[in-house]
Every structure is written in C-alpha cells, then in structure tokens.
Amino acid sequence: MKPYISLIIPVYNVEQYLEKCLDSVVIQTLKNIEIITINDGSNDNSIKILEQYAKKDSRIKIIDQGNKGLSEARNSGIVNSEGEYLAFLDSDDYIDSIMLETMYNKAKNDKLDIVICGFSQVDTKGNILYQTVMKNEIFDNDYICSRMLSSKITSMACNKIFKKDLFIKNKLLYPKDLYHEDVAITYKLFIKSQKIGSVSENFYNWLQRKDSISKSITQKHIDDIFFIVRDTKRYLLQNNILDKNYLYYLRRYFHFTMGLFSRIEHSTLLDKEKTYLESIVRKNLLEDNILTESNIKMLLEYDNDLSKKCAKYYNEKFDKNLQIDSLDIINYKNRILELEKQVEELKKYKGSKKDMKKIIDKILPKKSNKRQVVKTILGNTIMPKLKKPTFTNKDKIELKQYHNMFQGERCFVIGNGPSLNKCDLSLLKDEYSFAVNGIFYKTREMGYRPNFYMVEDGHVVNDNIKEINKFDCEHRFFPYIYKNKIRKTKKTHFFNADLSFYNSKNPIAQFSTDFSEKAYAGQSVTMMQLQLAYYLGFTEVYLIGMDFSYDVPTSTEITGNTYESNEDDPNHFHPDYFGKGKKWHDPKLDRVLMNYEKCKEAFEEDGRKIYNATVGGKLELFERKDYDKLF
User: Does the pLDDT value for residue 505 go beyond 80?
Assistant: First the structure.
C-alpha cells in the first residue's frame, strides 16, 4: 500500500541527537509511513545509528551520499519518496507521537494541500524556551500567502506536511547551496496550493543548539537573503499576484533586512567586520530602491508597531551563551561612536532633509534606546533615494510605445462633478475611458476599472497615496516628480509634467502633441489627459462629469491657493472626494477654460473632435452630445 506520508530526514554529524530524533519517529501512531533518511556525508557515527534503526524497522530507508548540503539531501528524499504527503524533520529535532496522524487526518478530512502545526523551541535538556500559538483553522492560499509573506507564519518546512504533487507538478525543489532554503521554497508551495489548514498543537520540537549555524553571519548569508527576496518578487510577478501582495512582500523584505542588521549587531565579529557586512546590506538596499518614502509610509499605515520593531533589533542584549572578550566590547563602543559621527554627517545633507526627518521621527520615537544607531542605518539607506526624481530615457521609451496605439478610436474622459451620478457608467464598460484622482470612490459601483488613470495634483497624491497605489487599471500615468511616492509597476508610467503654468501670474496655455517629451499643466488634470488622448491617437473624445461650476463652502480654510475642507464635498460625485481634512487648489475656472480652448484648437487642427456629453453643467465651449444616445 502506498505510504500516507514520506518523512524525509537529512542527517549530518548529529550522533549526539539522532537517536532521540529517530525514537520519536518510529513510535508515530500513524503506521503507514515511509521514513527516508539521507546521510549527507557524515564523518561521525550517524550512519551506524541509521543502520541499527533500519534493521529494526523496515519502514526506514537510507540514502548514503557525499556531503551536498541540506537542500540536496531533502531533494534526494523528495525524488525517492512514494508517499501521498511529504514531511521534513531535521535530525537534531524530534516530534510528538501523534503529529503525523493528526495532521494527515486533518489533510484528508478537509481535502487540504498543506497542514501546519505549532512548534516549541527547546534546549538540550528539553526545557521549552518558546512556543507558537496556533489555531485549528482552514484558509485559502491568498490569505495564508499574505501572512507568510509578512512573516506572520514561519517559512520553516518541518512543522508542515505537503501534498507531494505540489513539488512534482510545479517542478519545485530546494535550491542548492543556499542558506534559508525553507524561506526560498515554502511560499511558492503555498501559492500553488488551493486549500491550507492548521492544527492548534505544538507537535514539533526545535532544538536550539549553542553551535547552531543560525547564530553566525557571513557575507553569504547576506547575499542569499537578498537573492531570496528578489526571487520572491520575480515569482510573485510571474504569477500575477505582486500588486495585491505588495505590502506583504514589503514587510517580508523589511523583516529579513532588519534581521540581518540584528545578526550583525549581536555577532562576535570584530568591529571592522561588522562595518563591512553592514555596508553590504546597505548597498543591496540602495540597489533595490525598496525603502523609499512611499514604502516606509505604507508600512507605517499598515503596522503602527513598526517603530518598536525597528528599535527591538538594536535593544536586544547579547546572547548570554556567547563569549565576548574585552576587545570586542571596546570595538562595540567604538562602533557606536563611529555611527554617531555618521549621524552628524547626515545633518549636512541638503536633499529631502525635512521629509527624511519626518519619516525617522515616525519610525523612531525620541525616547527609543540607541536611536542614533537605528537612525543611521535607516537614514543612510533611505536618504539617497529621496533625492529629486528625474525623467529618464527609460521613462520616455515606455511612453513612446503608446504613440497612436488607439488611432481612429473614440474615448470618454470621466470628470468628477456631481453630474457623474446621473450617468449610467455601465455603458462605458466596453469603451475606452480615462479617469483621474478619486475615481476609486466610484469603481465599485461601476463594476469595472477605467482603462487610463492619472493624478497630477500634489495634494491629491499626499491625501490618497494608499488608495492610489492600490488602484489597479490597465494604464496608469503620473508626473515623474512622484516617483518616491507612487509604486512603479508594469502598468505605471511616469511622464514629464511641465508645471510652469502654476507659477506664472499671466500664464499662457500650451498643448503638447508629443506626450513622450512633456505634457503641459493647465489648472485641471483633464488638460493633461487630453494631451495623452491626443498622443494615443483617439479621434473623438467625449467629456462627461465636467460640471464646470464650483461652490466653496463657508467652512473651508483658505491659505493662498490651497483650500482645506471641513465638511462633505459638494462639488464632486462623492462627499469624501475632497471631504473633511482634504486639501485642493483654487479651481480658477477661467484658467481651465483657457486651456480647454487650446485643447479644442489642437484637436480640430488635426481633424479630430472633443465633445461635451456631460449631463447639464456650465461648460459650453465644446459641442454638446446626449450621453445616452452615444450607445
């Protein structure tokens, strides 16, 4: 009969712990199991112990190979297994007698691809140092993946059973010669699974050895961690789930990065070695451009406890088991002084200093211990990425691919006036449509997303950054000045916005026929959308929701050209659009009209046309069309 579970146990120089491990396996209450042990080139008595147990229990198979590492040992077990499910056990750990039976029954009864149990960290005397808290639950893979990516569920393989087909059908094996191999593969198995469950018991006993490799830190550890987080991003992209999991990916990246700093900080390396390894971490962070202002803000919005977590890595005491001589203590103190000097250097930085201070103050409360150390590490990482963004040749090339892509087609530019609520927007589902700013208040009602989305105004970006980064549609366009705020995806493009119109007392309306070079601001974001529609080749453009009227409530606070609302917004289709606490600029409709005249002129000179299909409103510049009769 086919084994219910194949239990895979890599073995390397663990004679001191191996018998306890095997004893916990042979007494499992689930009898129909296959026990695959892989002797990975041990040079102690491990192989003899395996042979002794194999003579007594026919379920034990021995694969004897040269030293190839944990991943290769596990892979040998996988390809030679016959069980319906796979489980993994490290040879210095041990498991409770009912673990496999309980988890297998859970898997079969609930038709699960993966089952997770809790674990206990124990010392060599069996004392429990730490225990997880698990519940008896069932999840879909979206939920469980988000929890794993955000490090709320451990990636370790040994407290789980997996349906073997997850490995075989998806051609997934453990990567060779890589630290943290569990982290590199487990989330992929979760993504490919359909249904996952957990049991509440802490069945797995994870031995915490003084000589454990997990307490060391080398450049390879750092290189491997960054390989894993980059591979994670690639895999999420390949499976078209990066956008919806971006926040969780960000948390994973942050968790691993701060973990590296922690391990370096609490290692027994010399001062110069620590400084060298920290510089490697920083170099990788800068290359990935991950800890930008927008990403840090996103983390803070999601996790209010982030500041404590940052500080935690630097407040932990040295492991009592580590031997630290007086020279190391002196080096440690010298290192702190050196870092404090770096902080002083940061004060000379002339870039986005104010923005950086706000972020650091949010992440690190003034009363945080060793604030200077954490501030320096994060500061040196983030600050270079807050320099003034630029419009690059790559940006231009991305935009050029759009030239005349929709030549001869018609499109609808959706405004945000109250009249939009009088339009049956379901009629636009199969039309090309442009939308701006707070259209996300409307899309649930619409039942679809517009094809094109744009935001120009800085107040809109700052007040709605979370919603903007979440808003997904086919084509997203933003001025390049927001690169540090708006997340770049394949669907997101940055353009060169000429904002000089806003800085002139007597501005002149301008229209760009080459959107890849620049687009001119014109008091309304629709001005830039019309330039984009022109560049894309649309022949007919229909405006809707362009009421062209504006009532400023008496409660509005006005500072220069900036308005701040203290009540519901009466001027847009949703009361929260520019609702209480939100800011916008003086609409200056006379200037908007000036720019619309320029748009009308540019389109008609090229034999194209802009129509106004708004229900009511006061914009009479463009020929009127009855919205309902256009379909």
Answer: no
Boundary residue ending a domain (325, 356, 386)? 386
Can you name the residues that pair with 197 across neighbouring β-strands? 115, 138
Same domain, 119 and 154: yes
46 with 149, same domain: the answer is yes
Measured CA to CA, the distance from residue 391 to residue 39 in angstroms comes to 57
What SS3 class is residue 23? helix
At 506, list the tokens. Answer: 């007597």
Q: What burial class does residue 629 get, using C-beta atoms within 10 Å of its C-beta: 0-12 exposed, 13-18 middle, 19+ buried?
A: exposed
Last residue of a domain, one of 386, 421, 454: 386
Above 80 in pLDDT, residue 268? Answer: no
| CA trace torsion 371, 372, 378, 380 (10° rounding) | 170
Q: Which residues contact residue 149 at a Cβ distance below 8 angstroms, ignoring those fewer than 6 apart?
A: 187, 232, 245, 248, 249, 251, 252
Same domain, 316 and 447: no
Same domain, 398 and 546: yes
Verdict on whether the full-model pTM lies above 0.90: no
pLDDT of amino acid 148: 64
Angle, in degrees to the nearest 10, between helices 15-26 and 46-56: 20
- The separation between CA 500 and the C-alpha centre of its own chain, rounded to angstroms, equals 35
Listing DSSP states for 193-222 in one string gives: -SEEEEEEEEEEEEE--TT-GGG---HHHH
| Structure confidence by residue, pLDDT tens digits, 586-604 | 678 888 899 999 999 999 9
- What is the tens place of the pLDDT at every residue in 337-373? 444 454 444 444 444 444 545 545 554 445 544 444 4
Q: Which residue has the tokens 């007494």?
A: 27
Residues 258, 364 within the same domain: yes
Judging by beta carbons within 10 Å of its beta carbon (0-12, 13-18, 19+), is residue 260 exposed, middle or buried? Answer: buried
Residue 621, pLDDT score: 93
Please name the residue ranges forming H helices in 347-415. Answer: 353-363, 371-382, 393-400
Higher-confidence position of 570 and 189: 189
Q: Length of the chain, please?
A: 631
Do residues 243 and 356 both lie within one domain?
A: yes
Q: Long-range CB contacts (< 8 A, 24+ apart) of 502-510?
A: 507/591, 507/594, 509/594, 509/595, 509/597, 509/598, 510/598
Query: In the structure encoding, which two tokens stand for residue 320, read together?
Result: 């009592």
Number of domains, the chain: 3
Amino acid letter, 436: V
Domain extent for 580: 393-630
**In degrees rounded to 5, what are phi and psi of residue 309?**
-70, -40
Note whether 229 and 270 are same-domain residues: yes
> Could you give phi then psi for residue 475, rounded to 5 degrees?
-140, 120
Asked if residue 241 and residue 132 are part of one domain, the reply reads no
Average pLDDT over residues 118-138: 89
Assess whether pLDDT exceeds 90 at residue 404.
yes
Task: Give the pLDDT of residue 570.
Answer: 77
Here the CATH number for the domain that contains residue 176 is: 3.90.550.10
> Could you report the per-residue pLDDT of 69-114, keeping only the tens digit for each?
999 999 999 999 999 999 999 999 999 999 999 999 999 999 999 9
